[in-house]
Structures are given as structure tokens and as C-alpha cells.
């Protein structure tokens, strides 16, 4: 009761209540900001990981001693490994692709249609055309951004140029060949949608002078985090000298940078909550100064030092607890509607706030981690509780005689 009365604004104590209000809003905004930023960082990592591993395998198996002419047998053995979803041989090369609107560099990958359909980020994201009978046809599948840049649609011809073409007495001449666009896909990651072209496996072997062999084999597994334990089994199943690289080694710099940025942002934003908690200290100290005579009278009426300390501890803890819960609710609401908020803000300011060319993704992700959110809430509560201890201790140590000497 006493703590609640001290929190209510009266004419003489209005300034103290204003400070308590600032402390409340500071803690609420600090907790909400921390939850939102960490959720967006987690969303970035999850989405990028899904996009990267949705197109590239968890293991990359490359030959060492010679060309991969026995790719069919190696692929069959890898498919039998426990925990492997499927293995996909492919032929890959860089080329120049051109259409009516211009020419652009691209990564051309030759795959079998059965494997292409098993890639959910390709087979499940076709926005025009079809991948049916992809092996038997001579068409190609093009990323949506690349198709728009070249000015082509399904059925249009795309010219592919590679410098490694036919060998002649005058040297190697570039190979130029036109293919119709059979399908347009949209992965949702600008790097893939702007550079990736899929070609039938047999056609790619002929085009890149790789008859009867594959460039490498991508292996997809059930649990990407278990690639370290699965490596010896995959190496043994290959049955030939191979060089195997897992997805963590291929993207170590990228994901390490994301992890460092995530940790640094957590530390920086924690300072916002700390500053708000310090406002609780200043507000409570002023409240203790203002309530000196009240404390003295309560002590003379029999209130113990522990009781006085509890009163002011509850006063400060109430600000911190309510502010933390309000910040948690605000953070959850914003994370649940982050894309709608982004679109509204972009419309209101007439600017593109989340460019896919810069951030790789077409939509702003937010993935709240339960453990991380609980950590933020508990950390905010602990900081707020610690901030109330010193003012409450000062109030409990107040000498009634000194407080009432000049009253």
C-alpha cells in the first residue's frame, strides 16, 4: 500500500513521479528494442541459412585423383548413408548469359530433373513455366531477377557464352548457344535469383565439355548441425579419394561475422536497459529525500528497518517489473508484425528500407528465440532489482532523530 501511494503523483511529488515515468518508458523501450533486434538478427541467420542450404548441399564432395566419371556409383552409395536425404551430382561453370535487355554473368549448373524437384527452394518456387520433363527438354530455368534484367520470359531465347568452347588449330574458341527459358524461379535471395541458371544435366555435360563426368556431388542431410559426426561416414561411403567440405567451412566467414555482430548488438543494447535502471536509482533517492519525515514517523511507530527497505524496494521493483513486462509485450507485437511495419514505414517515407540487393532477402525476418527472450527479461529484472537496493538501503538507514530534528 505504501509503495503504491509513493508511486502515485501528487502536486508536491509530481516531479518524482515524472522521473518514475521516464524510468518506466526507458525500461520498456530498452527491453522491447533488445528483443526486436535479437529476433531480427536470429531471423537473418535462420533465413540465410535456409536459403544457402536450400540450394547448396550440406556436404560438397569433389574428386581428387581424377575426373568424377563414376558419379552415378558414388551418388548411389552416398544415398544409402543413414541420415542423408539425397545426393545430387552436378556440372557447373561460369558463363555469360544475354537477352534482349543485356548480358550478365551467371553460374550455370547442370542437374537432373529429379534432383531439381527435390530442391524445395527451386522446385517449390517456380513462378512461371514448369520443370516437367526438364531432362528431356533443352530449356533452362532462370532466376527471376536475372530474367527481368535480361528482359526475357518463359519461351524466350537466352544466349549462353562460355570461353571454354571448341578446340581449333587457332586455339580454343568461345562456345555460343541459345536455349529457351522453360521456367523462372524465385528463391527469395537476391544473390541466387540474380546469378543462378539451371540446365539439364546431359546438356550441361556437352556444353562444358564434361561428357561422362560430373563436377562434384552435393549431399543433403537431415540434421545440418551433425555434419561433423557424419563426415567419416560420408568419406567412407564415397569409396574413392575425395575432398569433402561441409557447409560450415564454406560459409565460415559469413556466419562468424553474423555471430559477432549479434553479440556486439546485444551488449550495446543492454546499456539502454542499464541507463533506464539508473534512472530508477535517481528517482528513488529523490523519493527517499522527500519522504524523510514519513520514514522517521514510521520508524517511531514501530516499523523496522527491514520494513522500510521493503517499501522502497517494492516501489522501485514495481517500476522495473511493469516496464519489463510492457517491453516484452511490445517486442512480441512488433516481431509478429515486423514485415507489415516495414512496408508501412516504407510507404510513409517513400523509401526502400530493406533493399534485397543489400540484405539478400526479400522480406525482413524476425525469429524470436524463447531462451534468448527469457534471458533478456530476466536480465532486465535483475538490473532493475539491483538498482533499487541502494536507495532502499539508504531509506532503511535513515535516523529518525536526524530526520525530525528540524520539523
TrEMBL record:
Principal location class: membrane
Descriptive protein name: Lipoprotein-releasing system transmembrane subunit LolC
GO biological process, alphabetically ordered: lipoprotein localization to outer membrane; lipoprotein transport
Positions of the MacB-like periplasmic core domain: 24-232
Subcellular location: Cell membrane
Lineage of the species this protein comes from: Bacteria, Pseudomonadati, Pseudomonadota, Alphaproteobacteria, Hyphomicrobiales
Similarity comment: family membership: Belongs to the ABC-4 integral membrane protein family. LolC/E subfamily.
Transmembrane segments: 14-41, 264-288, 308-332, 374-393
Keywords: Cell membrane, Lipoprotein, Membrane, Transmembrane, Transmembrane helix, Transport
Superkingdom field: Bacteria
Residue ranges constituting the ABC3 transporter permease C-terminal domain according to the UniProt record: 267-400
GO cellular component, one term: plasma membrane protein complex
Membrane topology, record value: Multi-pass membrane protein
Amino acid at each position: 500500500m505504501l509503495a503504491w501511494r509513493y508511486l502515485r503523483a501528487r502536486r508536491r511529488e509530481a516531479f518524482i513521479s515524472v522521473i518514475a515515468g521516464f524510468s518506466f518508458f526507458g525500461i520498456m523501450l530498452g527491453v522491447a528494442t533488445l528483443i526486436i533486434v535479437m529476433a531480427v538478427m536470429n531471423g537473418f541467420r535462420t533465413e540465410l541459412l535456409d536459403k544457402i542450404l536450400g540450394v547448396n548441399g550440406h556436404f560438397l564432395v569433389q574428386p581428387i585423383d581424377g575426373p568424377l566419371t563414376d558419379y552415378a556409383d558414388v551418388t548411389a552409395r552416398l544415398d544409402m548413408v543413414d541420415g542423408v536425404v539425397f545426393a545430387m551430382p552436378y556440372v557447373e561453370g561460369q558463363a555469360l548469359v544475354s537477352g534482349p535487355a543485356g548480358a550478365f554473368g551467371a553460374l550455370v549448373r547442370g542437374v537432373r530433373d529429379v534432383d531439381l524437384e527435390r530442391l524445395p527452394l527451386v522446385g517449390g518456387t517456380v513462378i512461371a513455366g514448369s520443370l516437367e520433363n526438364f531432362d528431356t527438354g533443352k530449356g533452362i530455368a532462370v532466376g527471376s531477377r536475372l530474367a527481368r534484367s535480361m528482359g526475357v520470359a518463359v519461351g524466350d531465347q537466352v544466349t549462353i557464352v562460355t570461353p571454354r568452347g571448341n578446340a581449333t588449330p587457332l586455339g580454343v574458341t568461345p562456345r555460343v548457344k541459345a536455349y529457351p527459358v522453360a521456367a523462372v524461379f524465385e528463391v527469395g535471395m537476391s544473390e541466387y535469383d540474380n546469378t543462378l541458371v539451371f540446365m539439364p544435366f546431359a546438356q550441361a555435360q556437352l556444353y562444358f565439355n564434361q561428357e561422362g563426368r560430373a563436377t562434384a556431388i552435393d549431399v543433403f542431410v537431415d540434421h545440418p548441425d551433425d555434419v561433423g559426426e557424419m563426415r567419416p561416414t560420408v568419406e567412407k561411403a564415397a569409396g574413392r579419394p575425395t575432398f569433402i567440405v561441409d557447409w560450415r567451412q564454406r560459409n565460415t566467414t559469413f556466419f562468424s561475422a553474423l555471430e559477432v555482430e549479434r553479440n556486439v548488438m546485444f551488449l550495446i543494447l543492454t546499456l539502454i536497459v542499464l541507463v533506464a535502471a539508473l534512472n530508477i536509482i535517481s528517482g528513488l533517492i529523490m523519493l527517499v529525500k522527500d519522504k524523510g519525515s514519513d520514514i522517521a514517523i514510521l520508524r517511531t511507530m514501530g516499523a523496522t528497518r527491514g520494513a522500510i527497505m521493503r517499501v522502497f524496494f517494492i516501489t522501485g521493483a514495481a517500476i522495473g517489473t511493469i516496464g519489463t513486462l510492457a517491453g516484452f509485450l511490445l517486442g512480441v507485437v512488433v516481431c509478429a508484425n515486423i514485415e507489415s511495419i516495414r512496408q508501412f514505414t516504407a510507404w510513409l517515407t517513400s523509401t526502400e528500407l530493406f533493399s534485397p540487393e543489400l540484405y539478400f532477402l526479400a522480406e525482413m525476418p524476425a525469429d524470436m528465440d524463447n531462451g534468448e527472450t527469457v534471458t533478456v527479461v530476466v536480465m532486465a529484472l535483475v538490473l532493475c532489482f539491483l538498482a533499487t537496493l541502494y536507495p532502499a538501503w539508504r531509506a532503511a538507514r535513515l535516523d529518525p532523530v536526524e530526520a525530525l530534528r528540524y520539523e
